[in-house]
Amino acid sequence: MNIKSVAALITCHNRREKTIACLESLQRAEVPPAYRIDVYLTDDGSTDGTGNAVREQFPHVNLIQGNGNMFWAGGMRLAWKTALDRKKYDAFLLINDDVILHRNFIWNLLKAETYSLSETGMKGIYTGATVDGATGEVTYGGSTIIRNHLIVTMQKLALASYPQQCDLANANILWVSGYVVDRIGIFEERYTHGIADYDYSLRALKRNIPLWLAPGVCGICEHNRGKNWKTGVSLKERIRWMKSPKGLAYSEYLFYIKKHFPAYLPYSFIMMWMKILFPFVWDRFKKTA
Description:
This protein folds into 2 domains: 4-220, Spore Coat Polysaccharide Biosynthesis Protein SpsA, Chain A (Alpha-Beta Complex), CATH 3.90.550.10; 235-288, no CATH class. The chain is built from 10 helices and 15 strands. It has helices at residues 16-28, 50-57, 71-86, 105-120, 178-184, 196-206, 235-243, 250-260, 265-277, 279-288, and strands at residues 4-12, 35-43, 62-65, 91-95, 100-101, 125-127, 130-131, 138-140, 142-148, 151-156, 164-165, 168-169, 173-177, 211-213, 219-220. The strands form 3 sheets. It has an 8-stranded mixed beta sheet with strand order 3-2-1-4-13-6-14-11. β2 (35-43), α2 and β3 form a beta-alpha-beta unit. α1 packs parallel to α2 (50-57). The radius of gyration is 19 Å and the shape is globular. The chain starts with a strand and ends with a helix.
């Protein structure tokens, strides 16, 4: 049997319980007989004992030490580069460390690959949907892009029993074929924390690489809803959050918009500042949009 090798890529920072739970769910997952998974985990300067806990409970994991300032995209790039340096992999499996993976999630992703090959003759990128454990609401997965003159919005895809083509793929659970990496590389160096997976999706589409949302549910993950602008949050704090890599990532977001949706840049610039300067107006605008 020809064994296909897959590098699972994860990054973490001071979320020991979540990281361990994620690794436990990956360990419980059903791996098809023709596949072998190597795990690469960037521990980005955790001070809560995450690294030691991983070494003790998962000695097979390739643990990589970050400098504490890599954030999500930087940590994922380091894990990805390390895997590429070690050996030639057939695929790469990106996982957020706050995801609890379903036992059959790999089979769902491979259904997307089988479908992609039958429909397009190409391997591609496959995202797995996650849901909120309490509500069952879809939290992450695939989205389509809707264009309306100079306004661009995203529409999250609903769950289905079959693969669905998408324009944007979240990397909470993301399978990237080695063929894709050979053509477009890994995450763009410009992104510190978020946005990197959306940029990667659009780079793939520009090279006619197919993106699919895998069928069913692949895991459980709470939605990170970002900052809630309530009374008492000062303008200075809002601006700080806007510029923060874990906030709105102002410069990186505008770089992303200019790169992929240049006609949308003026609108995006105005909307971002409206959110910061006039948060209550923004809330009313979002409710009526």
